[in-house]
Fold these 2 entries.
Entry 1:
Amino acid sequence: MKTPIRVAVTGPAGNIGYSLLFRIASGAMFGADQPVILQLLERNNPDSQKAVKGVMMELDDCAFPLLAGVVNSSDPKAAFRDADVALLVGARPRSKGMERADLLDANAAIFVEQGRALDESASRDVKVLVVGNPCNTNAWIAMKSAPSLPAENFTSMLRLDQNRLMAQIAAKSGKTVNDIVHPAVWGNHSPAMVPDLEHAQICGRPALEGIDRAWYEETLIPTVAKRGSAIIEARGASSAASAASAAIDHIRDWVLGSGDRWVTMGVPSDGSYGVPEGLVFGFPCVTKNGKYEIVKGLELSDFIRARMQKSIAELESERDHVAKLLAK
Ligand code: NAD
Ligand code: LMR
């Protein structure tokens, strides 16, 4: 029997939590022979704690063979103790009519506290995925609040944007997502993101040979970039099952390897492609042996570069806005 992987999950009583925990416990994240211990962190108020107890009862009732334990705490240091993976989901989600920037102040303090707690008690190799929005800047805050952990341990979730891009291309081209390789989404998880088809292939041919450039620029890009709002409009709540599924994809590929496939991850920039060092930015990556690498040496068109500048400017302004919190 393998040693269990300790997975901390924040916001377990929320919508994404409810879609995520059961899949982790069933083996979808690390494979069918890898036990897990879930370490839950929920807010310390009676309603949230009552709800999390209900989720834990349901986890028990699934009798998952791979679930080696579940602990619940409202103390970040306890919940992150020795964690190998930390999924930072818990945050206030955007509701109808609210812009992501409005979330910045509401959520920044959470990620200062959680970054400090990770610094103190998580495994030194902990793989952190920030899902709670605005996820790139929240990941940056957590990273800066955890100076003793390597910066590259902190990532944010753009995999949902890559998955959305692939689904749209598959539908347009009449192919399946399995026929598509090398899609990428650069930048911020916000409407300023840059879905990039310029390197993508469908059935081994350049995607833009079969897909009309005007449709790509004028329809596909805004559809993917504003999909979060479209889901909120349709469901009355932000995406949950698809977000949980993307979180599984992100961590599974980071831990088990992506092979030749590109996987979009929000990672601290190493200065590649002119993205200022340290900004947590969506890049196409490949993963191997538990490490990711940004795909280097791609030719970027002026069209893509100009859009990337918007994401850079947005992330710099978010970073400057929250930087004062770190000084406290
Ligand atoms: P939700 O409101 O249903 O659940 C959030 C949960 O987090 C609640 O149970 C809440 O009590 C808990 N929580 C809040 N503050 C906490 C804290 N400090 N510590 C621990 N738990 C805390 O929201 P949801 O639908 O599950 O969404 C969660 C977050 O994920 C939101 O910020 C949302 O915008 C974001 N999101 C990101 C993506 C992405 O692609 N990056 C996609 C969808 C949603
Ligand atoms: C999403 O992309 O579905 C989420 O980030 C929700 C949102 O606020 O856009």
Entry 2:
Amino acid sequence: MLDVEAIRKDFPILSREVNGKPLVYFDNAATSQTPQQVIHAIVDYYSNFNANIHRGVHTLSQEATDLYEQSRQKIQAHFNAKFSHEIIFTSGTTHGINLVANGFSSILKTGDEIIVSALEHHSNIVPWQMLCEHTGANLKVIPMNDQGELVMSEYDNLLSENTKLVFTNHISNALGTINPIEYIIKKAHAVGAAVLIDGAQACPHIKPDVQALDVDFYVASAHKMCGPTGVGMLYGKEAWLNKLPPYQGGGEMIAEVTFEKTTYADLPHKFEAGTPNIAGGIVFGTAIDYMNSIGFDAVAQYENELLEYATEKLLSIDGLKIYGTSKHKTSVLSFNLEGIHPYDVGSILDKLGIAVRTGHHCAQPIMDYYKIPGTIRASFAFYNTKSEIDALVEGVKKAKKMLS
Ligand code: PMP
């Protein structure tokens, strides 16, 4: 059982007001809020350790390097990677995906096939389209059904000896569907294809085990799991990371540089050119500690309660439709009021201090499937409460009255 009132005290922002009303923050799928433990760790870093890493012999540089590398080890342990050098610090999920896509541009050839899912965020569509343009490979799409689930029988039909890569998110940001990634990975490996899983939406809710999944690449962003923006991680199997060429050239990623030839550093530095987001990398570890101190099982159970409560309450509103009705989903509710634009509802909710996301959620193909311009998305975290959901439901009713 979570002590939600005590947990809420960890998040200073939750006690502020918006438009004269207590903030109700339901935009957690866009970014999570930041606990004081993480805020404190950022202040502590800049107050006591700020220095460039991996370069200086002086004490500050060595201490900052140690903190950065300890954080990498924390991330390794959290995702259960075999080696800490299989964890690459990135600026976020988008960076991790682009790094892998860029690497495959020297591996793929004309006629190769890559498979993505219909439920993807644009950041897991556009880099692969660019890759196809460069290489002559073809993009295939696993279709979705009305419940917002991927159709696995169609996936089976798409797989062939030409399939070289499969990409899908672990959990859809627009609908909350949890995709059957174990099956997807197993089937892809059976035809010799590599798999990248976009874990941006999964990591706030569950603790992925990359070895048990046997996944080739897994990417995530710290800011979705109580960490700061501008930092994330790419897990890659050692053999794959050794095979892929570097993404960017620069300082830190080299072994030796002459004008005739440059040799690259070993993992993980080969993929970490330039001065990274040092504070962000260190504090990513603090955010992981914080999430683990709350406990992922308790988080999942509580968020599920919130989801069930909100689903029932919202569905009692006449003309309200929820998109994404899979039994396998996390605490995301995407919905519309019949005949009313989602943006108008979002604006009225904002006046009431309630933060939701409106629009296509960077997942336009899903909106096209449902033939809608977008949805209102309320996404819940472990620090939200049922009384906040009551405020949302009242707000939606009020918006309906004003806009009908
Ligand atoms: N994939 C999914 C499923 C996401 O939800 C997001 C963030 N909305 C991203 C990728 C991109 O993450 P970032 O902007 O942190 O790179």
